[in-house]
Amino acid sequence: MQPETTRAGRKARPEWADGLRQLYDSVVNEPLPDSFADLISKLDDTGK
Amino acid sequence: MSKAPAPAGPLDRPASAPSGQHRSESDRIAFKREMTAVIPHLRAFARGLCGRPDLADDLVQETLLKAWAAQDRFEPGTSMRAWTFVILRNAYLTDMRRNRFRGEYDEGVAERTLTAPAGQEGPLHLADMHRALLTLPHERREALLLVGAGGFSYEEAAEICGCAVGTIKSRVGRARAALSRMIENGEMPRRGKGGEDAAHRAIMKDLDHVAHGGTLD
Questions:
Q1: Domain B25-97 classified CATH 3.30.70.260?
Q2: Distance (Å) from the C-alpha of residue B114 to the closest C-alpha of chain A?
Q3: Contact yes or no for B57/A33 (Cβ under 8 A)
Q4: pLDDT (mean) for A19-48
């Protein structure tokens, strides 16, 4: 138990909420490994 | 997957498609284009779920193959991202039950890949965030990922997880409360100081629980 830390971020979105989104976006924005292009291109022949 | 004969009903086919045979070439191309477009999102969701980038990408590959095989069941015009997330989630749960994710959290890789973009450096390192996230029970983690990171509505998230909207709200609420508590009390799992142990323990607990047919509400 902490003493009363009346942090301003309590009611507003917690400050880490942006971090969560950033975490997700940081992966979304990564360049795709080549293995994915390989896989996608192979789907042409094997499409069921 | 089930080789459904060409659907007869107009409801099954977009108006532009020729009726009958020929699950048209253009359908296939459109499907593939849409599926390709959501790969980055699948990777982000998978990484958040399982923590290990290499396993996450394996999971995405598995998902893509399954989605491709099941493409007849995709309704054009609906959300490809939501549809593929369901497949990814099911694959993850199956793998979890088979204990495939009993590897340890790969600290080194997370450290490399989760650096905050320059200029946006907050007080919170993204890797810390990720570690904290990984200490949450799986069902809360995925709910928070879908709503708080992926931007899905509660309704969409409920559909993806196959549960009630109220359940999702409660999971997200509990996940948020747990993260807030960790952060405000300075109890973020720290790297090298047993933080990954905490994350690991939490995942192990999930695994045992789920392996015994439990849920994590």
A1: no
A2: 7
A3: yes
A4: 86
Measured CA distances, B176 to A16, A37, B197 (Å) = 10, 36, 21
- Cβ proximity of B136 and B175 under 8 Å: yes
* Whether B61 contacts chain A with CB within 8 A: yes
pLDDT band of residue A17 (cuts 50, 70, 90) is: confident
Task: Give me the residue spans of the domains in chain B.
Answer: 25-97, 123-211
Per the listing, tokens 């192979």 go with: A42
Cβ <8 Å between B43 and A27:
yes
Is the model's pTM score more than 0.80? no
pLDDT per 10-residue tile (average), chain B, 217 residues:
39 41 76 96 94 92 96 94 97 81 49 44 68 88 95 96 97 92 72 51 55 54
A9 in any annotated domain? no
Whole-complex ipTM: 0.72
Q: In terms of residues, how long is chain A?
A: 48
CATH topology of domain B123-211: Arc Repressor Mutant, subunit A (1.10.10)
Judge whether B180 and A19 are in contact, CB under 8 Å. no
Amino acid at B75: E
Is residue B179 within 8 A of residue A16, CB to CB? The reply is yes
Range of the domain at A30: 15-47
What are the phi and psi torsion angles at B137 (to 5°)? -60, 145
* Contact criterion met (CB below 8 Å) for B207 and B139: no
Answer whether B43 sits within 8 Å of A30, measured CB to CB: yes
Per the structure, the count of domains in chain A is 1
Which residue would you say has higher pLDDT here, B153 or A23? B153
